[in-house]
Amino acid sequence: MANYLSPQEITNYTSDGGVNKVNRSVLLVFLMAIMAGAYIALGGFASSVAAHDLTNKGLNKLVTGAVFPVGLMFVIINGADLFTGNCLIAVSAFEKRVTLRQFVKNLVIVFVGNFVGAVTIAFLVANSSILTMSENRYGAYMIKTGVSKVNFSFTEALCLAILCNIFVCAGVWMMYGAKDISGKVWAGFFSIFAFAISGAEHVVANMFYIPTALFAKSNPVFVEASHLSSDKLTSLTWGSFFVKNVIPVTIGNIIGGIFLGGMYFLIYKKLTKPSDK
């Protein structure tokens, strides 16, 4: 017996999973979402520590990509609710097995829980001695990361977010198809490796990166080490975090997830004849 599901079976599995996801209690979904936010933040934390002192941009991205996937592995294997992955509930909604209201309600609860989990990790990192690593260069690196993320145009952030969730949902889709731990690890690793080195925008990861940058910005030692102009530093605020990043990236991530889920719904639920399944 194969140790993986066929594409048709993954579609059925995803649809069944969407029904299960929306029929749990609000508290359960919220707690699972906190865990996912924390897991993705841990992936962002570990990868940024590994890459922060690498001046070669390509090598920096390569190292980031090699470490960051641990976050999604935690989510899928341990069990947690991630906003970007839950956009695949769209498959169940297209089948009319869940209502639009149930779909949106789940995404809202998960978004808030992810934020709580990710910002908690950001707060813990910012209030430890970790930001002083490499003679304060890690704290400076986080500030520069945050500044770059709040200086995209709306269109840039939107497009990068759509690309992100095509990567992420394709990875989740493959992880759903694997029946054993090793299969899930490899399926998740390469897809998220590709996402992380691409520079695409993931709203939950940014719930760690940008708040950490904001916490670091409050310390003049890290600000000085960043060597950023006052104009750049002024652009990094909680307001710019939500307006310039969270809003367009959230919209883009939803579009990317619905695109991928919708395509497989059309392929395997609408256009595939029973004899072809």
Characterize this entry briefly.
The chain contains 14 helices and no strands.
Number of discrete domains:
1
Based on secondary structure, the structural category is mainly alpha
Low-pLDDT runs of 5+ residues are none
Top-tier CATH class: Mainly Alpha
Approximately how much helix is present in the residues? over 70%
Overview of this protein structure:
The chain has 14 helices and no strands. The protein has about 280 residues and is mainly alpha-helical. It has one domain (about 5-270): Up-down Bundle (Glycerol uptake facilitator protein), CATH 1.20.1080. It is globular and about 65 Å long. The model has no long low-confidence stretch (mean pLDDT about 95).
Q: What distinguishing features does this structure have?
A:
277 residues, 14 helices, mainly alpha, Glycerol uptake facilitator protein
List the helices and strands and how they pair.
Elements: H1 7-22, H2 26-51, H3 57-67, H4 70-79, H5 83-86, H6 90-94, H7 100-126, H8 133-149, H9 154-177, H10 181-198, H11 203-217, H12 220-226, H13 230-234, H14 238-270
Helix pairs in contact: 1-9, 2-3, 2-4, 2-7, 2-11, 3-10, 4-10, 7-11, 8-11, 8-12, 9-10, 9-14, 11-14
